[in-house]
Specification:
Layout (H helix, E strand, L loop, with lengths): L7 E4 L2 E4 L3 E2 L6 H11 L3 E3 L7 H11 L7 E6 L6 H15 L4 E6 L8 H13 L3 E7 L3 H10 L4 E7 L7 H9 L3 E5 L11 H10 L3 H11 L3 E2 L6 H8 L8 H8 L20
Length: 276
């Protein structure tokens, strides 16, 4: 039984907690994950590339949350998308996390030098072998998502991508909804860029909430699953306390109007696709 206070979203048989805890760039992932789990998070977002999987696994052991209550995501990095490398990466992730399977396995970034068909077959095989309950992709554009769907013999449940008020992802949100997929949003707080925004601050004061809570609720209202991260115990708890209020249509519109042409944060040269 997962935390009953956190709603879930569903896609192609997957049931995912509507908010997760991100684990990239954490100095002490074991302690931070243990705090997050104690606060009530049950959805943990990891990746081989983050170098935090061992810490995430240790945090799970410290918190003593039963495995069946958790929804654990990890990812295979772009340099490991050949079939043999892919399988090796998955095994390394499971060993580091200390689990026999993950709930969601993602391709972390696309790689034009490796045939997508080979990668999708490897991703599907991980699911069929019981190493991942569900599968998806990250940092693909819409055309790449469609190609991945076409090439993958198992259903893709999510695309993970950057989502926050300074980046207009309305086209992507609509496209995934049409395909029955969930959008999981990283950088939901714009890596702190939103904290001093006047519009966000005004809405937060009116609601009696923090700017971070407003930003996360904005994602939730659109059906996006945000995955904030924090090493601050109070903020970790606050980020989870977003299910006792809603935003009006006008407030959603005002927040959506904050999108900037230069709003994207994660855009690595040579790896990023042509974004929608």
């Amino acid at each position: 039984m997962r935390n009953p206070n956190i709603p879930t979203v569903t896609a192609h048989g997957a049931e995912m907690p509507a908010i997760g805890f991100g684990t990239s760039q954490l100095a002490d992932p074991a302690a931070d994950v243990a705090v997050a789990l104690a606060a009530g998070y049950r959805h943990l977002d990891a990746a081989r590339k983050y170098g935090t999987e061992e810490g995430v696994g240790e945090g799970i052991r410290i918190a003593k949350v039963p495995r069946e209550e958790l929804f654990i995501t990890t990812k295979v990095s772009h340099e490991n998308l050949r079939a043999a490398d892919f399988a090796r990466s998955v095994e390394q992730s499971l060993r580091a996390l200390g689990v026999s399977y993950v709930d969601l396995l993602l391709v972390h970034w696309p790689n034009a030098a490796i045939p997508l068909g080979e990668t999708m077959q490897a991703l599907a095989k991980a699911k069929r072998d019981g190493l991942a309950r569900h599968i998806g992709v990250a940092n693909f554009n819409i055309a790449m998502v469609d190609e991945a769907i076409r090439l993958c013999p198992e259903p893709l449940v999510t695309l993970q991508a950057e989502v926050h008020p300074y980046l207009d992802q309305s086209k992507l949100i609509a496209a995934l909804r049409q395909r029955g997929m969930v959008l999981t949003g990283y950088c939901p707080l714009g890596r702190g860029r939103l904290m001093n925004d006047e519009t966000m601050g005004a809405i937060a004061r009116q609601k009696g909430k923090s700017v971070a809570q407003i930003a996360l609720r904005w994602s939730i209202e659109q059906g996006v699953v945000p995955i904030p991260r924090s090493s601050n115990r109070q903020r970790t708890a606050e980020n989870l306390a977003i299910f006792d209020f809603t935003l009006s249509e006008d407030e959603m519109r005002r927040i959506g109007a904050l999108a900037r042409r230069d709003g994207r944060i994660a855009n690595p040269a040579g790896r990023a696709p042509a974004w929608d």
